[in-house]
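Good morning C.,

I know you're traveling, so I'll keep this short. The sequence:
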Amino acid sequence: MLGSSGLHHVTAIAGDPRRNLRFYSDVVGLRFVKKTVNFDDPGTYHFYFGDAVGSPGSILTFFPWANAAPGRIGAGETHETAFAVPTGALDAWEMRLAELGVEAGVVTERFGHRVLPFRDPDGMRLSLVEGEAGEGVTPWEGVDGLKGDIAVAGFAGVTLGVADPARTAAVLTDVFGWTNTAVDGGRRRFEAPGGGAGRFVDLVAVDAAPGRLGAGSVHHIAFRAASDADQAAMVKRLRETLGLQATPQKDRNYFRSVYFREPGGVLFEIATDDPGFAIDEPVATLGERLMLPAQYEAQRERIEAVLPALG
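The C-alpha coordinates, ready to paste straight into the viewer:
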Protein backbone atom coordinates (compact mmCIF):
# COMPACT_ATOMS: atom_id res chain seq x y z
CA MET A 1 0.00 0.00 0.00
CA LEU A 2 1.42 3.36 -0.98
CA GLY A 3 1.32 5.92 1.79
CA SER A 4 3.30 8.66 3.48
CA SER A 5 7.05 8.30 4.07
CA GLY A 6 7.08 10.82 6.93
CA LEU A 7 6.31 14.36 7.95
CA HIS A 8 6.61 17.00 5.25
CA HIS A 9 6.41 20.09 7.47
CA VAL A 10 5.00 21.51 10.69
CA THR A 11 3.26 24.90 10.64
CA ALA A 12 2.95 26.97 13.81
CA ILE A 13 1.89 30.42 14.97
CA ALA A 14 4.39 32.94 16.34
CA GLY A 15 4.34 36.45 17.74
CA ASP A 16 6.97 39.00 16.73
CA PRO A 17 8.41 38.01 13.32
CA ARG A 18 11.90 39.43 14.00
CA ARG A 19 12.21 37.46 17.23
CA ASN A 20 10.96 34.31 15.51
CA LEU A 21 13.47 34.69 12.68
CA ARG A 22 16.38 35.27 15.04
CA PHE A 23 15.53 32.33 17.29
CA TYR A 24 15.18 29.65 14.63
CA SER A 25 18.07 30.96 12.52
CA ASP A 26 20.59 31.91 15.20
CA VAL A 27 19.68 29.65 18.13
CA VAL A 28 18.27 26.46 16.63
CA GLY A 29 20.46 26.87 13.56
CA LEU A 30 17.90 26.16 10.84
CA ARG A 31 18.27 27.68 7.40
CA PHE A 32 15.81 30.43 6.49
CA VAL A 33 14.54 28.64 3.40
CA LYS A 34 11.72 30.87 2.23
CA LYS A 35 10.36 34.32 3.01
CA THR A 36 6.88 34.65 1.58
CA VAL A 37 3.37 35.63 2.68
CA ASN A 38 0.33 33.83 4.00
CA PHE A 39 -1.44 32.98 0.74
CA ASP A 40 -4.81 33.64 2.42
CA ASP A 41 -3.63 36.85 4.13
CA PRO A 42 -0.85 38.52 2.08
CA GLY A 43 -0.35 41.24 4.67
CA THR A 44 1.24 38.62 6.93
CA TYR A 45 4.54 36.78 6.53
CA HIS A 46 4.89 33.03 6.10
CA PHE A 47 8.36 31.89 7.16
CA TYR A 48 9.90 28.54 6.22
CA PHE A 49 12.93 27.11 8.06
CA GLY A 50 14.66 23.85 7.20
CA ASP A 51 17.84 22.07 6.26
CA ALA A 52 20.45 23.30 3.77
CA VAL A 53 18.27 22.61 0.72
CA GLY A 54 14.72 22.69 2.10
CA SER A 55 14.16 18.94 2.24
CA PRO A 56 10.75 17.51 3.16
CA GLY A 57 10.97 16.27 6.72
CA SER A 58 13.00 19.29 7.84
CA ILE A 59 10.59 22.18 7.28
CA LEU A 60 9.18 24.19 10.18
CA THR A 61 6.97 27.08 9.06
CA PHE A 62 5.39 29.99 10.91
CA PHE A 63 2.62 32.50 10.54
CA PRO A 64 4.06 35.34 12.68
CA TRP A 65 1.55 37.88 13.98
CA ALA A 66 3.14 40.51 16.21
CA ASN A 67 0.05 40.88 18.41
CA ALA A 68 -1.02 37.23 18.52
CA ALA A 69 -2.46 36.13 21.86
CA PRO A 70 -0.78 33.09 23.46
CA GLY A 71 -2.17 29.70 22.55
CA ARG A 72 -3.36 27.15 25.11
CA ILE A 73 -2.24 23.55 25.12
CA GLY A 74 -5.02 20.96 25.25
CA ALA A 75 -6.65 18.08 23.45
CA GLY A 76 -6.56 17.93 19.66
CA GLU A 77 -3.19 19.61 19.40
CA THR A 78 0.48 19.02 18.68
CA HIS A 79 2.12 18.96 22.12
CA GLU A 80 5.74 18.83 21.01
CA THR A 81 7.84 19.10 17.85
CA ALA A 82 11.07 17.12 18.04
CA PHE A 83 14.27 17.78 16.07
CA ALA A 84 16.87 15.09 15.44
CA VAL A 85 20.50 15.66 16.43
CA PRO A 86 23.50 13.30 16.30
CA THR A 87 24.20 10.92 19.18
CA GLY A 88 26.23 12.69 21.86
CA ALA A 89 25.13 16.19 20.85
CA LEU A 90 22.91 17.02 23.82
CA ASP A 91 25.71 18.02 26.19
CA ALA A 92 26.76 20.75 23.75
CA TRP A 93 23.14 21.78 23.25
CA GLU A 94 22.50 22.06 26.99
CA MET A 95 25.44 24.47 27.23
CA ARG A 96 24.38 26.39 24.14
CA LEU A 97 20.80 26.92 25.28
CA ALA A 98 21.90 27.92 28.78
CA GLU A 99 24.40 30.45 27.41
CA LEU A 100 21.71 31.95 25.17
CA GLY A 101 19.15 32.16 27.98
CA VAL A 102 16.72 29.66 26.44
CA GLU A 103 14.24 27.91 28.73
CA ALA A 104 15.08 24.20 28.70
CA GLY A 105 14.07 21.17 30.73
CA VAL A 106 15.98 18.17 32.04
CA VAL A 107 17.36 15.52 29.69
CA THR A 108 15.15 12.43 29.79
CA GLU A 109 14.95 9.20 27.81
CA ARG A 110 12.22 8.05 25.43
CA PHE A 111 12.24 4.88 23.41
CA GLY A 112 15.92 4.42 24.24
CA HIS A 113 17.02 7.89 23.07
CA ARG A 114 18.06 10.94 25.09
CA VAL A 115 15.69 13.91 24.77
CA LEU A 116 16.20 17.56 25.74
CA PRO A 117 12.94 19.57 25.93
CA PHE A 118 12.96 23.35 25.49
CA ARG A 119 10.67 26.16 24.38
CA ASP A 120 10.87 28.99 21.90
CA PRO A 121 10.17 32.63 22.90
CA ASP A 122 6.43 32.16 22.30
CA GLY A 123 6.32 29.04 24.48
CA MET A 124 6.16 26.50 21.65
CA ARG A 125 7.17 23.09 22.99
CA LEU A 126 10.22 21.68 21.24
CA SER A 127 12.81 18.98 21.89
CA LEU A 128 16.12 17.69 20.59
CA VAL A 129 16.38 13.90 20.25
CA GLU A 130 19.72 12.14 19.92
CA GLY A 131 20.25 9.53 17.24
CA GLU A 132 16.90 9.77 15.48
CA ALA A 133 18.11 11.49 12.30
CA GLY A 134 16.44 10.17 9.17
CA GLU A 135 17.70 9.87 5.64
CA GLY A 136 17.39 12.59 3.01
CA VAL A 137 18.34 15.63 5.11
CA THR A 138 21.37 17.92 4.66
CA PRO A 139 22.09 19.71 7.97
CA TRP A 140 22.62 23.46 7.68
CA GLU A 141 26.09 24.49 8.86
CA GLY A 142 25.72 28.21 8.29
CA VAL A 143 25.63 29.12 11.98
CA ASP A 144 28.76 29.44 14.11
CA GLY A 145 29.11 26.55 16.54
CA LEU A 146 26.58 24.32 14.80
CA LYS A 147 28.42 21.95 12.50
CA GLY A 148 27.47 18.44 11.48
CA ASP A 149 28.46 16.84 14.79
CA ILE A 150 25.68 18.68 16.64
CA ALA A 151 23.56 20.45 13.98
CA VAL A 152 19.85 19.72 13.67
CA ALA A 153 19.19 17.00 11.09
CA GLY A 154 15.52 17.50 10.29
CA PHE A 155 12.59 16.36 12.38
CA ALA A 156 12.52 13.28 14.55
CA GLY A 157 8.74 13.57 14.85
CA VAL A 158 5.85 15.10 16.76
CA THR A 159 3.75 14.30 19.81
CA LEU A 160 -0.02 14.64 19.45
CA GLY A 161 -2.33 14.93 22.44
CA VAL A 162 -5.79 13.53 21.69
CA ALA A 163 -8.74 12.29 23.73
CA ASP A 164 -9.00 8.93 21.93
CA PRO A 165 -5.65 7.86 20.44
CA ALA A 166 -7.17 4.80 18.74
CA ARG A 167 -9.13 6.93 16.27
CA THR A 168 -6.11 9.03 15.36
CA ALA A 169 -4.04 5.84 15.10
CA ALA A 170 -6.43 4.55 12.43
CA VAL A 171 -5.52 7.49 10.17
CA LEU A 172 -1.81 6.82 10.63
CA THR A 173 -2.07 3.09 9.95
CA ASP A 174 -5.00 2.70 7.54
CA VAL A 175 -4.48 5.85 5.45
CA PHE A 176 -0.75 6.67 5.70
CA GLY A 177 0.53 3.11 6.04
CA TRP A 178 2.44 3.73 9.29
CA THR A 179 3.06 1.07 11.96
CA ASN A 180 2.65 1.12 15.75
CA THR A 181 6.20 0.10 16.65
CA ALA A 182 6.51 0.72 20.39
CA VAL A 183 4.91 1.90 23.62
CA ASP A 184 6.79 3.89 26.27
CA GLY A 185 4.75 4.81 29.33
CA GLY A 186 1.70 6.63 28.03
CA ARG A 187 3.16 7.11 24.54
CA ARG A 188 2.28 5.03 21.52
CA ARG A 189 4.84 5.46 18.74
CA PHE A 190 3.90 5.20 15.07
CA GLU A 191 6.61 4.99 12.45
CA ALA A 192 6.56 5.70 8.72
CA PRO A 193 8.06 3.20 6.29
CA GLY A 194 11.36 4.02 4.63
CA GLY A 195 13.50 5.52 7.39
CA GLY A 196 13.26 9.15 6.28
CA ALA A 197 13.28 12.30 8.40
CA GLY A 198 10.20 13.07 10.46
CA ARG A 199 9.22 9.42 10.61
CA PHE A 200 7.69 9.31 14.10
CA VAL A 201 4.34 10.36 15.54
CA ASP A 202 3.77 9.74 19.24
CA LEU A 203 0.19 9.67 20.49
CA VAL A 204 -0.69 10.46 24.10
CA ALA A 205 -4.16 10.39 25.66
CA VAL A 206 -5.21 13.81 26.97
CA ASP A 207 -8.15 14.37 29.31
CA ALA A 208 -8.44 18.12 28.85
CA ALA A 209 -10.37 20.82 27.08
CA PRO A 210 -9.52 21.41 23.42
CA GLY A 211 -6.44 23.51 22.82
CA ARG A 212 -6.67 27.10 21.63
CA LEU A 213 -4.62 28.33 18.72
CA GLY A 214 -2.33 31.26 19.31
CA ALA A 215 1.33 32.21 19.55
CA GLY A 216 3.37 29.16 20.50
CA SER A 217 0.90 26.60 19.19
CA VAL A 218 1.01 24.38 16.11
CA HIS A 219 -1.56 25.16 13.43
CA HIS A 220 -1.20 21.91 11.48
CA ILE A 221 1.17 19.10 10.57
CA ALA A 222 1.78 17.93 7.02
CA PHE A 223 2.55 14.40 5.81
CA ARG A 224 4.55 13.63 2.67
CA ALA A 225 3.06 12.39 -0.60
CA ALA A 226 5.52 11.28 -3.27
CA SER A 227 3.20 12.41 -6.07
CA ASP A 228 -0.27 13.69 -6.88
CA ALA A 229 -1.37 10.10 -7.48
CA ASP A 230 -0.08 9.01 -4.08
CA GLN A 231 -1.86 11.95 -2.46
CA ALA A 232 -5.11 11.07 -4.25
CA ALA A 233 -4.82 7.45 -3.12
CA MET A 234 -4.54 8.53 0.51
CA VAL A 235 -7.52 10.85 0.13
CA LYS A 236 -9.50 7.94 -1.33
CA ARG A 237 -8.59 5.65 1.58
CA LEU A 238 -9.46 8.42 4.02
CA ARG A 239 -12.94 8.67 2.55
CA GLU A 240 -13.63 4.99 1.94
CA THR A 241 -12.03 3.55 5.09
CA LEU A 242 -12.77 6.21 7.71
CA GLY A 243 -15.53 8.31 6.14
CA LEU A 244 -13.45 11.51 6.33
CA GLN A 245 -13.37 14.15 3.61
CA ALA A 246 -10.34 16.19 2.56
CA THR A 247 -10.40 19.59 0.90
CA PRO A 248 -9.79 20.00 -2.83
CA GLN A 249 -6.11 20.23 -3.72
CA LYS A 250 -4.55 23.67 -3.15
CA ASP A 251 -1.41 24.89 -4.93
CA ARG A 252 1.06 26.25 -2.36
CA ASN A 253 3.77 26.96 -4.98
CA TYR A 254 6.33 24.72 -3.28
CA PHE A 255 3.97 21.75 -2.83
CA ARG A 256 0.34 20.86 -3.49
CA SER A 257 -1.84 20.21 -0.49
CA VAL A 258 -5.08 18.77 0.80
CA TYR A 259 -6.30 19.23 4.37
CA PHE A 260 -8.57 17.39 6.78
CA ARG A 261 -9.21 17.29 10.51
CA GLU A 262 -8.46 13.88 11.97
CA PRO A 263 -10.90 12.43 14.55
CA GLY A 264 -8.87 13.72 17.50
CA GLY A 265 -9.15 17.31 16.27
CA VAL A 266 -5.63 17.88 14.86
CA LEU A 267 -5.53 19.53 11.44
CA PHE A 268 -3.63 17.25 9.03
CA GLU A 269 -2.28 18.14 5.61
CA ILE A 270 -0.98 15.86 2.88
CA ALA A 271 1.67 17.72 0.85
CA THR A 272 3.53 16.63 -2.27
CA ASP A 273 7.33 16.50 -2.26
CA ASP A 274 7.51 18.42 -5.54
CA PRO A 275 8.22 20.98 -6.85
CA GLY A 276 10.25 22.10 -3.81
CA PHE A 277 11.67 25.40 -2.63
CA ALA A 278 14.09 26.01 -5.49
CA ILE A 279 11.26 26.56 -7.96
CA ASP A 280 11.46 30.37 -7.68
CA GLU A 281 14.99 31.10 -6.39
CA PRO A 282 18.34 29.29 -6.49
CA VAL A 283 19.32 27.01 -3.61
CA ALA A 284 22.36 29.21 -2.95
CA THR A 285 20.17 32.23 -2.12
CA LEU A 286 17.12 30.62 -0.53
CA GLY A 287 15.30 32.92 1.87
CA GLU A 288 17.07 36.13 0.87
CA ARG A 289 14.24 37.78 -1.08
CA LEU A 290 10.51 38.11 -0.46
CA MET A 291 8.91 35.61 -2.81
CA LEU A 292 5.27 36.14 -3.79
CA PRO A 293 2.87 33.81 -5.56
CA ALA A 294 1.88 34.93 -9.04
CA GLN A 295 -1.51 36.26 -7.93
CA TYR A 296 0.14 38.79 -5.61
CA GLU A 297 3.15 39.88 -7.68
CA ALA A 298 1.32 42.91 -9.08
CA GLN A 299 0.72 44.03 -5.48
CA ARG A 300 4.37 43.65 -4.41
CA GLU A 301 4.97 47.33 -3.61
CA ARG A 302 1.87 47.56 -1.41
CA ILE A 303 2.59 44.24 0.33
CA GLU A 304 6.21 45.14 1.05
CA ALA A 305 5.07 48.45 2.53
CA VAL A 306 2.73 46.67 4.97
CA LEU A 307 5.04 43.87 6.12
CA PRO A 308 7.26 44.72 9.11
CA ALA A 309 10.98 45.16 8.50
CA LEU A 310 13.11 42.21 9.58
CA GLY A 311 16.49 43.90 9.92
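Safe travels,
E.
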